[in-house]
Amino acid sequence: MKTPLPQKHLHHELARSVFWTALLLALLTSVALFVAEFQWSSEKTETRLNQLLDTVETTAAVAAYSGNPAIGADVLDGLLRNDIVHEARLLNDRGLDLHRLREAGNARVPPGPALVRDLHSPFGEREVVGRLLVFPEARVNLREARHAALVGALSSSVLIGLTALLVLGLVRSSLSLPLSGVSGALHAIRAGEQERLKPLPRHRDDELGQLVNDINGLLATLEEKFAAERLLREEVQAVERRLREVFENTSAGIFLLDGQGHLCMANPTLGRVLGLPGLSPESLIGRDFPALAFAEPEQFHHLFHQAGSHSAAMDLKLRHRGAGPAWVHCLLSRQTDGQGETRYEGVVYDITERRALELRTQHEADHDLLTGLLRRHAAERELRRRLDAPSRQPQAVLLLDLDHFKAVNDTHGHAAGDRVLLETAQRFRSCVRSGDIVGRLGGDEFLIALLDCASLDQARRVAHEIVDRVVQPIALDQGIGVTVGISIGIALSHRPGQALEDLLRAADLAMYEVKRWGRNGYASPLPEGAIRVERRDTAGAWTQADTLPAPKSPDVSQESISV
What we know:
Helices cover 49% and strands 20% of the residues. It has 563 residues and is α+β, with helices and mostly antiparallel strands.
């Protein structure tokens, strides 16, 4: 329904504006006239005063020269008889000082600035014999200025008023009335109708005629836009229906969270993906999403924090999905709606099979196929991570190399060598904790990292046990048994963040000393820079020696020493 037209009219507003403008102009004109007339009257008064002074100057000079107060009083009284003089004064240097003042009357108006005339000797000399001071009567100037300003203000007010009325009438007939007609006709047209404004015959070629034409063109354009909008609305509704079908039937779970991580919206698939098939989307609304869905809610909180600045994604383990572990990939992004509310849009889809395949692939890449121990890169990666962590306990690194292993391969074949490596790896595991790192660096060389090792003595005890275990005979096929030894170098980290390369270099140097002193034992550093070597002989007895490390010969490789 159309709202009624406003009761205010343009020509009324225009009339008020013209009235106040005319009034302001009349006031400004009156003030300007008053100021100009007062200035002109002051200048005229000054001229008349100078003429009066010229008239009485000779008489006043005689009175000042002779010091005659009677003549001086006549001069001053004669000046005061002129209505433009407010005050007069005659004085000389010999004590004559005559003063006359006009009665102030009812209004006290301060006089203008004094005119001073120096009086010279009447006998032709240029000697100054006195001074004559005359103060103009300001009331005369004010009276003349008021009269002139009043006449000017009345004249200008009448002229301005007549001009304003004429302009107002012309504007009303030529502009406001046609505009009112156009406004009323435009207000009566309903949106989408084909009705148009009628042209104005008198204004066909001016701005009003152009305005009517432009409005009609705009109405035609709006009609086309309305038609296009109806078609677009139908297309949008069709797209919304298809999106709704996708939203409800997709294989991925779609959800919307508020700023605190509570569910605001969810599709039916979300419950199935999260392992909650019995819960409807409505029953999930308002629930704490990370606590509801994930086995490790703190990981989702981390993802939630990342999504505050940019879209983030992460693989997350679920709480509910049968006996085995289940995983989903979650994509989360932050959005702000039109009311400034922060929301988080998310998508989750099942990646349990992919995750299992990735774990199998990662396990095969990180573990030696024969022994099941960590490969070199995996062992060093895990050890480097522990060294970089701010741990209070040191980490002990053991480098191990089998003694006489090449003889087993050459005598009994590679299958026997594989059997020795497998058995040795199992013995290593039995000597360390489950959380320690045991890896095969390649061939018959191994690495053991004792994590959070209490002291160097603890590392020596573990190395001692490993030597005792490894030297025990290993049974091969057909009742054949072989025996190998082992050389172990020990290094201990002294501070968090110590470089892995430094530890491996120190452990390798210690292991080299064991080889140099006869193999089948372990070596560890001493505080003064020496290395302590402890060996086990064939009879099972242990011997100990402290020695300084010897440099490796460039033509003697580690492999040749460990044979």
